[in-house]
TrEMBL record:
Organism encoding this protein: Chloropicon roscoffensis
Domain of life: Eukaryota
UniProt binding sites for heme b b562: 171, 272
Name by which UniProt lists this protein: Cytochrome b
Keywords: Electron transport, Heme, Iron, Membrane, Metal-binding, Mitochondrion, Mitochondrion inner membrane, Respiratory chain, Transmembrane, Transmembrane helix, Transport
Residue sites binding a ubiquinone per the record: 291
Length: 472
């Protein structure tokens, strides 16, 4: 075996022009190293720099030989690339066919060295999705999707099932955590303009995931069959009746009857079980799209020369975020499990009694405020459509040549204004429809669209003009 490797190495080395070039330069006493080798040396650290050229060549030769032998043994020409695969043994678990995906995307993935803790919110969103799927599967083992039993089966889970209270509180609060993580993840993307070329697909897939999340959370909230479940479902599904001509037929089709009833609850349960798996699939495509061009970074500049492997560096950093998140999540689950919910949902659904205020969960309030800011049903639905159209179009509306808000002082201010605007919309969403809340909501809604449709495209052009005038 050794003889075979030796023959292989001695056969391949003379075919490497830059190494031969280096050998001839060193033997002729020249101090300038050829370019490819200089690049290699710069990655080796100070001890390497102190070595003599001969020692360096020996070391490089050994490393190259190791790599070629490994490539030869694994029949994998990809190993001839600069990057070393994790795990050196042929039989290492990580070198098995299916797991090379894990190796490529979670271990060897080259991440920019300067990413900050805001880059941990993607993996935190993934953790939330995992928690929701895991707890949801166990909850479904004890839940009954029937109008006469749904509310009682949830109470049965809370009181009789071993650990059922924990499963339910993890799932109910997990939905809120998921939205908190995803909203921070999105605002990180807005601040550092991670959505612009070449990451348009990453952003647009994210918007699709957000839509699917909203749908999943909405139908999930109907399942406990409390007052808010029933009336929330009635109000939101009725919005479809605003569609001209076919609106009423669509509502009847959605309900599976002439009101929100057993058929509605059954189909919502079925879809609520299905959609998270579609979100999981979409998240994998989202990450695949990201890994095609690599992550953005706080400077927004091309980071291809300054990268580190995901494991262990980013992993350890993410671990800090994951543990902190665990603490944050636990505070809600163990000390304030109903803080984020509405007390009316502990009253069984009653189609004969409408609650005084029908409010959605906190994470829908900003969209709900935009919906209500137009005093016309169809107009409200159109406004929601426009919100998602703006988000989808964002990568193509952006005209700035610079990504990060760190170098765009006006954009930075607009970013904070947009965040404040969304918080105001959230506050308006839980207020009754009366003066001055209606007017404040209308102004905040208009501002939301002005940000995306006017400020984003214009600001980039103004910045370009200003920088050209400075240069001339
Ligand atoms: C289930 C929900 C989601 C999951 C599990 C998820 C997961 C991830 C992960 C793991 C990353 C890489 C790490 C990071 O940059 O944080 C990422 C990046 C990214 N995500 Fe998401 N994401 C989700 C939803 C969204 C949404 C709703 C959007 C925006 C509408 C979005 C936009 C982005 C962008 C633009 C990047 C690239 C960031 C960069 O390179 O700087 N994601 N996502």
């Amino acid at each position: 075996m050794k003889a075979k490797n030796k023959a292989f190495v001695s056969g391949i080395l003379p075919r490497l022009p830059f190494l031969n070039d280096l050998i001839s330069k060193v033997s002729s006493g020249s101090n300038t190293l050829p370019k490819p080798m200089e690049m290699l040396l710069s990655q080796k650290g100070p001890a390497y720099d102190l070595m003599s050229n001969e020692d360096r060549i020996q070391m490089e030769r050994k490393e190259l030989a190791k790599r070629f032998v490994k490539a030869d043994n694994l029949y994998d020409p990809k190993l001839l690339q600069d990057r070393e695969k994790t795990g050196s043994k042929r039989l290492s678990v990580l070198n098995q066919p299916g797991l090379s995906l894990v190796t490529d995307h979670l271990i060897d993935y080259p991440a920019p060295i300067n990413i900050n803790y805001f880059w941990s919110f993607g993996s935190l969103a993934g953790i939330c999705l995992g928690v929701q799927i895991a707890t949801g599967i166990f909850l479904a083992m004890h839940y009954t999707p029937h109008v006469d039993l749904a509310f009682l089966s949830v109470e049965h889970i809370m009181r009789d099932v071993e650990g059922g209270w924990l499963l339910r509180y993890l799932h109910a609060n997990g939905a809120s955590m998921f939205f908190i993580m995803v909203y921070i993840h999105m605002f990180r993307g807005l601040y550092y303009a991670s959505y612009v070329s070449p990451r348009e697909a990453v952003w647009c897939l994210g918007v699709v995931i957000l839509l699917l999340m909203i749908l999943t959370a909405f139908i999930g909230y109907v399942l406990p069959w409390g007052q808010m479940s029933f009336w929330g479902a009635t109000v939101i599904t009725s919005l479809a009746s605003a569609i001209p001509v076919v609106g009423n037929s669509i509502v009847t089709w959605l309900w599976g009857g002439f009101s929100v009833d057993n058929a509605t609850l059954n189909r919502f349960f079925s879809l609520h079980y299905l959609l998270p798996f579609i979100i999981a699939g979409a998240s994998i495509v989202h990450i695949a799209a990201l890994h095609q061009y690599g992550s953005n970074n706080p400077l927004g500049l091309d980071a291809s020369v300054d990268k580190m492997s995901f494991y262990p560096y980013c992993f350890v950093k993410d671990l800090v975020a994951w543990v902190s998140f665990g603490v944050f999540f636990s505070v809600f689950v163990y000390f304030a499990p109903n803080f984020l919910g509405h007390p009316d949902n502990y009253i069984p659904a009653n189609p004969m009694s409408t609650p005084a205020h029908i409010v959605p969960e906190w994470y829908f309030l900003w969209v709900y405020a935009i919906l209500r800011s137009i005093p016309n049903k169809l107009g409200g639905v159109a406004a929601i459509g426009l919100v998602f159209a703006c988000l989808l179009a964002l990568p193509f509306l952006q005209t700035s040549e610079v990504r990060s808000s760190l170098f765009r002082p006006i954009h930075k201010k607009l970013f904070w204004l947009l965040l404040a605007d969304c918080l105001i919309l959230g506050w308006i969403g839980m207020k009754p429809v009366e003066t001055p809340y209606v007017e404040v909501g209308q102004i905040a809604s208009v501002y939301f669209f002005v940000h995306f449709l006017v400020f984003v495209p214009i600001l980039g052009r103004l910045e370009a003009k200003y920088s050209r005038s400075l240069a001339s």
